[in-house]
Amino acid sequence: MKPNVGNTDKIVRYVIAAVALYLYFGGIATGSLGIVALVVAAIAIVTSLFSFCGLYALTGMSTCKMKTE
Question: Does pTM top 0.70 for this prediction?
Answer without folding.
Answer: yes
